[in-house]
Amino acid sequence: MIGLRRLALGFPLTWSHRRRYSVTGIARAAQGPYFVEWDPGHGVYGEDWIDASFDDAGILLSGAARVYHPIRIAQFALHRFGVWCATADAEARADFLAQARWLRDRQHSGNPAGLYRFDFRWPKYGADAGWVSAMAQGEAISVLLRADAIDPSNGYAAAARRASLPFHYGIPEGGVVWRCGSDVFFEEIANPHAPHVLNGCIFALWGLWELWQRTGYRDLQQPIDACVDTLRRWIARFDTGWWTCYSLARSATNRPHIATLKYHQFHIAQMRVLAQMFAEPRFEAAAQRWAAYVEDPKCRARVFGAAMASLPDRLFARDTVRGGAHT
Question: How many C-beta atoms surround the C-beta of residue 54 within 10 A?
């Protein structure tokens, strides 16, 4: 089943998939529905949350090993919050708050404080157990702020603030930020290999922005502005001229990391939200350009070609850090 899904993601038989998004929540930062939606189902583009495993406290478990995955827990929470906003369903609210409590209570102490650590490895990116992620931090902030809005005085606001602290530390200091000169990137896999995953950086940015909008913490403005400025300047790096790149990592044979249709559509939706969030026409222009790629048969053919060309790298693990992948 997993192999068939990966095949369908890399070689889509239909190009009708779109990622739903909304900009209405920008005016109600961290109180309304989240900016993008996830498909909870079992289909090619679904998250497999229907009939998923949960622990005794109602916390989502992931994979055959039934592990706690902070990113998936946060995303499931945001999905259930959206369901509750749309339907007032009490079960959706309970599901949301269960995940929010887990995110409130599972932050690590130390310096920096507020980190979520992953108890499993991600070998492709050279991440050992204990790795950290700006995406996890940002999405957790978005969850915790919404929990505080509907269930205040239960420590959610303080937890959201703690989750922001790793954004003040570079990767060498144990934080989640990659820096080089004026370039600042929030790393989904925050280790020295720093693959620069586009969607993860943007999800992280959204959480930090929502906290800034809700609280006005002055120390948040500088990392937000620096990341947005970097994204403005880096858009072309993620654009092949016919599709987007999932990350800036390249295989040992120097092939780019081309996004699947699922993540290409995430990029389009995220750029449209960013365009409204920061009043930046370059983000909207990128979204329009990337959406046009989906409709162009020549671009679709190149996606198939790139997927075919990448198969040997995948077969021989040349798209992994251990196999020689690099940023």
Answer: 15
Nearest to 10 by CA among 320, 314, 235: 314
Q: How far apart are CA 36 and CA 128, in angstroms?
A: 30
User: What's the distance, Cα to Cα, between the start and end of the chain in Å?
Assistant: 31
Distance CA 217, CA 247 (A): 30
Alpha helices by DSSP H, 133-252? 134-150, 156-164, 198-215, 221-234
In contact, 319 and 309? CB cutoff 8 Å: no
pLDDT in tens, 121-158: 999 999 999 999 999 999 999 999 999 999 998 999 99
> What pTM did the predictor assign?
0.97
| Tokens representing residue 167 in the block | 């954004």
Which amino acid, 163? A
DSSP conformational letter for 187: -
C-alpha to C-alpha distance for 117 and 136, rounded to whole angstroms = 9
3-state DSSP assignment of residue 53: strand
With 0-12 / 13-18 / 19 or more C-beta atoms within 10 angstroms meaning exposed / middle / buried, residue 179 is middle
Residue 4 has pLDDT above 80, yes or no: no
54: phi then psi, degrees, rounded to nearest 5: -135, 150
- Side-chain-facing half-sphere of 59: CA atoms under 13 Å: 19
